[in-house]
Specification:
Elements: H1 8-38, H2 42-45, H3 48-71, H4 73-133, H5 135-140, H6 150-166, H7 178-196
Length: 211
């Protein structure tokens, strides 16, 4: 079996390379073993996932420790301690790392949902503003501008709630409540239009929501 070079500089570089290899293998092995144990399908997989994670780590760590021990026993001991310490640290910190990864995935998903919600928000506001700004719609459907009407009052509250959470053009909103607020706004707008007698015929642009 190939041994470490006895020369000082070369031996030091070889030991450093083995230390990086051992530390990385131990960390990855313990991290993925903990990840498998924490996964929802851990019970269905049994112990196979964590077992093979640990086995793969040992397949790297053990030969490295043995190789170092042939040249200098203390080097093998140091690598063994490094592997054990790194593995324990990875196993202990894995839940926190996994929570951070899940939080980042959830944040990205929320941003994508909110980008789509922002487009629907702008469309709903544009549709509602026709009843405020277009004289023909204002005359034909006065109830849409009358806050004394229960459906119109509910629509105004929904508009304000969506505005507070995301604004009408905010594409970077990370609030998980924004998309549901836009859903509620669309439902409120459709309900107000039905109560005011608005039909789909003759309405330019986006028609009443069919929620």
């Amino acid at each position: 079996m190939t041994s470490l070079s006895p020369s000082g500089a070369l031996a030091a570089s070889q030991f450093l390379a083995l230390a990086v290899l051992v530390g990385g293998a131990a960390f990855a092995s313990a991290y993925f073993a903990r990840k498998h144990l924490a996964a929802d399908d851990a019970l269905s997989e049994g112990a196979d996932g964590p077992f093979w994670d640990v086995f793969a780590g040992l397949a790297v760590v053990v030969p490295a420790v043995v190789l170092a021990s042939f040249t200098w026993p203390w080097a093998g001991l140091a690598l063994g301690i490094l592997a054990a310490g790194t593995g324990l640290m990875a196993f202990a910190t894995a839940p926190r790392l996994l929570r951070r990864q899940e939080a980042r995935r959830a944040s990205r998903k929320t941003l994508l949902l909110n980008e789509a919600a922002a487009a629907r928000h702008r469309s709903a506001l544009a549709r509602w503003q026709r009843y405020e700004l277009d004289p023909r719609f204002s005359i034909d459907y006065p109830a849409m501008s009358d806050p004394r009407q229960p459906e119109t009052a509910a629509l105004i509250r929904a508009i304000r709630a969506a505005e507070r959470l995301g604004g009408r053009t905010d594409r970077a909103c990370a609030d998980t409540a924004y998309a549901p607020a836009v859903d509620h706004l669309e439902h409120a707008l459709a309900a107000a239009e039905r109560a005011a007698g608005v039909g789909t015929a003759g309405l330019p642009g986006p028609g009443p929501a069919s929620h």
